[in-house]
Amino acid sequence: MFDALSERLSGVFDRMTGRGALSEKDVDAALREIRVALLEADVALPAVKDFTSRVREKAVGEDVIRAVAPGQQVIKIVHDELVRLLGGEGEPEGLDLEGEPPVAILMAGLQGSGKTTTTAKLAKRITERDKKKVLVASLDTRRPAAMEQLAQMAERAGVKSLPIVKGQTAVEIARRAMQAGRLQGYDVVLLDTAGRTSIDEEMMTEAAKIAEVARPRETILVADALTGQDAVETARRFNDRLKLTGLVLTRMDGDGRGGAALSMRWVTGLPIKFLGVSEKVDGLDAFDAKRLAGRILGRGDIVSLVEKAAQDVDHEKAERLAKKMAKGKFDLEDMRDQLKQLQKMGGVSGIMGFLPGMNKAAKAQMAAAGFDDGAIKRQEAIILSMTPTERAKPDILKASRKRRIAKGAGVEVPEVNKLLKMHRQMADMMKKVGKGKGLPGMPGGRMPPGMGGMGLDASAADLLKGKAPQGAGLPGLGGAKPPAGLPGIGGPLGPDGLPLGLPKKN
């Protein structure tokens, strides 16, 4: 969503960091470009004016103009002010679930904003992360099949939904949901209210009555990030009537300009609590101003990538693979598991979004070099076209078998040869590890925890410090590194996502 803005800002910063000294005139010229970039990204004009005036106030000071690296100093100031614009330095604001159960959470929003899907996602998150027993209930008596949709989504999320009783009003359903929550021992009840194509008096009156019955601890507005400033205006008008406690922005994986996310906190004063990043039931991320600012400025978000990997990994399969690798074994079935794990984490494009320097041009360069999600799917198709014996013993693959596999996968024979060569390189690496020679490119030649007793302490420390471990490639891409010349790759970053050595904010 922020690709265009990131690219514009990167261009401004590249020109600034290329200068040995900065004058007040240079700072003003850069701020004009930043102002235009933010306005083109659909950020609210008052927010842009406040942002640029604060940056200028700090950037034209004597300390910056005469600094050894004034360009980097200005980038640090822009980063800090961007964090402030998005919500501040503090820890992400989660949900307030304290109180006598069942705690009610009221979900509000316009029709089509993703309210029902977000309700199911939130229920899954509370169940898994907060270990609470959750009940969801649809109060939408107008939209056809709205209740059935939530029931299906709840089933996919692994949570219970309130049984549907036809003919009840939204207020009666809310009362029944709270009663069921008390009688059946639920900790949290999520109430999915009806939406409209626009805010009207009838909808707001109904929502107010539901709030009187349920007495919600949290009233969350679900807004579509693709609607830009309309989403900000919707939040302001809802807050005037319902007194919201937080926001969820959906479709953050879209190609919108991102102005809603950047303006929302400044205009409404309400915290953004979550971001909807996909249609899947687990596609809900906690909002973190500091990490999002780092991604907008092209600094990446390695910490989130590590957390995502830890969350998505299949520990049972990882343990089995660890034991095989300790013996120096690595067949094509193991390689397929690694490809599936990569896809589960969002594919190559999803991972690249977390890496430093991965702007639109860098992603296009990677795609042109063949490093894309299509390549991963083709590799998996080739492996699936093999028999179990061929996957276990790739050495038996001769010309006739390769032709059959290529035809089954819909690719040419050279693609099959390329995959086999990649597998052979990975298998040779595993044999070296199994013989105790260590893993080339890894600090100390060590493997992740549980893999043959060799630890990943240095690599994990590198990741949590905000830099990629040496020699780390993407699974399924043959350990290939990104093309040369991409900014930010491999460079050490500080805990705030900026280059090390910069002075800390006072």
Written account of the structure:
By secondary structure, this protein is of the alpha/beta class. It has 3 domains: 3-86, Up-down Bundle (Four Helix Bundle (Hemerythrin (Met), subunit A)); 103-290, Rossmann fold (3-Layer(aba) Sandwich), CATH 3.40.50; 302-464, Orthogonal Bundle (434 Repressor (Amino-terminal Domain)). Helix content is 52%, strand content 8%. The protein is built from 22 helices and 8 strands. An 8-stranded mixed sheet has the order 3-2-4-1-5-6-7-8, sandwiched between helices. β2, α7 and β3 (160-161) form a beta-alpha-beta unit. The longest helix is centred in the C-terminal third of the chain and has 22 residues, at 413-434. The radius of gyration is 26 Å and the shape is flat. Residues 439-493 and 497-506 have low confidence and may be disordered.
Show the helix and strand layout.
Layout: H1 3-17, H2 24-40, H3 45-59, H4 62-65, H5 70-86, E1 103-108, H6 115-129, E2 134-138, H7 146-157, E3 160-161, H8 170-183, E4 188-192, H9 201-214, E5 218-224, H10 229-242, E6 246-250, H11 259-268, E7 272-276, E8 284-286, H12 289-296, H13 302-312, H14 315-326, H15 332-344, H16 347-352, H17 360-368, H18 373-384, H19 388-392, H20 399-409, H21 413-434, H22 457-464
Parallel strand pairs: 1-4, 1-5, 2-3, 2-4, 5-6, 6-7
Antiparallel strand pairs: 7-8
